[in-house]
Amino acid sequence: MRIISGQYKGRKIMAPKQLPVRPTTDMAKEALFNILNNSYYFDDISVLDLFSGTGNISYEFASRGTEEILAVDANFGCIKFINQTAESFEMPIKTIKSDVFKFLENSKQKHTLIFADPPYDFDVDAFSKIPELVFKNELLEDEGLLIIEHSKHTDLSHLQNYSHSKSYGGNMFSFFD
């Protein structure tokens, strides 16, 4: 995986093979950040990266100047890797090892952008819990956005606060506001 843009543009990051992850593809990541670049100043926002895995999305935000990034994942190996990588690049990424749903139930901190990249094999009920908890607990700032990455075979358009989706290859981003 590589960082697409910003201060660390072109840097390759090699995650350990044993991590249970499926990083967002470079093509999908670049398309997503092109969309976000038209709506946000990255140095003025707060980002919550759920199911953060390798930290791929967090690194991209940090490279573009975001100072407030919180990455949440249940896997100790993922959290350790993100911490090591963030430290080596001097990126302002904080991490929490937690089940994402428990974290969302207990969190009170608001964010400008919340990005969730859960396992693609989640059933629709599990996917639906993400926006349900985000909006019930008012975790988005005004003008904030929740983005859920999922397979093109999963339809989230029936969920409350759904706005639209964008498809890139086998990846899909659903936007909620």
TrEMBL record:
Coiled coil: none annotated. Keywords: Methyltransferase, Transferase. The keyword Methyltransferase applies. The keyword Hydrolase does not apply. GO terms for biological process: rRNA methylation. One of its GO terms (molecular function) is methyltransferase activity. It holds the Pfam family Cons_hypoth95. PANTHER family: METHYLTRANSFERASE. This is 16S rRNA (Guanine(966)-N(2))-methyltransferase RsmD. It comes from Winogradskyella jejuensis. The lineage of its organism: Bacteria, Pseudomonadati, Bacteroidota, Flavobacteriia, Flavobacteriales.
